[in-house]
What does this fold into?
Amino acid sequence: MAHQWRGVVEEYRQWLPVGAATPVVTLREGGTPLLSSQWLSRSVGADVWLKVEGDNPTGSFKDRGMTVAMSVAVEQGARACVCASTGNTSASMTAYAARAGLRPVVLVPHGKIAAGKMAQAVVHGATVVQVRGGFDDCLVIARQLADRYPVVLFNSVNPMRIEGQQTAAFEVVDALGDAPDVHVLPVGNAGNITAYWRGYAAYADAGMTTRLPRMWGFQAAGAAPLVTGVVVSAPDTVATAIRVGNPASWASAILARDASHGRIDAVSDAQILQAQHDLATREGVFVEPASASGVAGLLLAARQGEVPEEARVVVTLTGHGLKDTATALAGSGSVVDSVIDADVHAAADAAGLV
Ligand SMILES: *Cc1c(COP(=O)(O)O)cnc(C)c1O
It folds into this structure.
């Protein structure tokens, strides 16, 4: 019988805060592809790999933390769950809540959620509350709801989320045999850069790796508080998943940057959309805009001559492109190139084959 990946709790149980009695709520997340990228390796003069997190059950890396957080919440008797979300946290939480039988409540910025992500929360049965404000306002309210009402908070300030998200770093090491020299990823609320750093550190402490990677985080220029050092009150970027002005994991992101001798820099929306396009046309990987910011950042660093020659580099692609087709198609004019009668000659002509 074919071996089936069991999900991150069963695959990495000894590294996670779960006990024998914890009921595991899983959609068999994790075990995502690590793809060698010839295009990026050639472009930046290094050995570049892509960790394709859009291949998780709900289409983003959020599922890694959600399985742990939901399992622990069920063990502790939770009946309802809440999160603030730019879309992917709610997509993930609602799916795991459905599986666990919890009631999901979702707070999202009014009118600022990609259609695919909104659809996920709705079909999984969430009560979706749109807040007139941004993600940061939603997070304040979600925290207050969890403080005052019988509902558990599932944002990455729930420490179980970060615990589960470490498993992506474990998978990278298990696949490559050691940690990379550089790990590149998008940064929004900064939970993931925190989680990768902790995961690499845990493996290094246990003697599973010979080195720690430099952590290179990239924010969108219109939402780059970790680059400028000041809270952004009205963050703005096409990359909605990283449209965060006051990251919850601010301090731990700075720690990951400094302890790893890394960097957190900004990339423009134009660079993000170009990287999204290039990933789709050159590598066959369709990511949402936020997910392309790591690739945009790596290319920027290469132009500045800052990618160490022959370094082994892993770039996390955080979420799937199908979640936000409107943005992906916005630049491409008409969706179809031509309309013809049902005739082979006309088709050959339209396809440029003659
Ligand atoms: C959540 C998310 C991010 C940002 O991750 P943080 O942990 O908030 O820094 C980036 N890309 C996608 C697709 C996401 O869903």
